[in-house]
Structures are given as structure tokens and as C-alpha cells.
Amino acid sequence: MTQTTEATLLRLFIGESDEHAGRPLHEAIVLRAREMGLAGATVMRGALGYGRSSRLHTSKILRLSEDLPVVIEIVDRPERIEAFLAETEPMLGSCLVTLEAVRILRYGHDGGMS
């Protein structure tokens, strides 16, 4: 049987046009996660979505949006995710942040998290 590791999945829901210190917010977040040594981060660009304002953001060619939805996922040990959130809170603005307990079945060559 595969050994599992308990971890936390952090999801940040932002807009493609969101910025921090003159750079795209998703880039600033991923670079900060890397600097802090988190296990990894993935940025996904959405084709369609809406948020608090209920305004649709879409990638349809006839309705070009300058602000498509972006989701950033980061998985690591709970205490490392909490430290990351405390460090990045000033840059997050009004984004939606979710946390989920997850089980990691495999990570890297040895299956463990650093």
C-alpha cells in the first residue's frame, strides 16, 4: 500500500489583471512561494468565470476579457501554508482564498515532502 502524507491545499482565486508591485499577481505569488521553499505551485487560467460582482469574464473571441479568472494552487504541510498566507496577506487584496485538507499519495521520487 502507498504511504500517504497529510497536507493542505491552498487555492487562490484572482483575476488575470490583478497586480502587485508592478508585476502580475499570480507571478508575484508563485515567486514568493518558491522563495519560501514551498513544495510547488500551479497557475491555471480559466476560460469563464465570475466573482463577487457577478460580471462574467470569458475567453470567447467575440467577448474578449482583459481579466480572465486565474486559480493558483499550492500544496504543502499545514504550518508552511499558514506561514505563506501570513507572509503574502498584504498582496492578496480581495481575492478568494480556500484551504482544504488533502492526502498526498505520491510526491517526487521518494513519495515524501521536504
UniProtKB/TrEMBL annotation:
<comment type="similarity">
    <text>Belongs to the UPF0166 family.</text>
</comment>
<dbReference type="Pfam" id="PF02641">
    <property type="entry name" value="DUF190"/>
</dbReference>
<dbReference type="InterPro" id="IPR003793">
    <property type="entry name" value="UPF0166"/>
</dbReference>
<dbReference type="InterPro" id="IPR015867">
    <property type="entry name" value="N-reg_PII/ATP_PRibTrfase_C"/>
</dbReference>
<dbReference type="InterPro" id="IPR011322">
    <property type="entry name" value="N-reg_PII-like_a/b"/>
</dbReference>
<protein>
    <submittedName>
        <fullName>DUF190 domain-containing protein</fullName>
    </submittedName>
</protein>
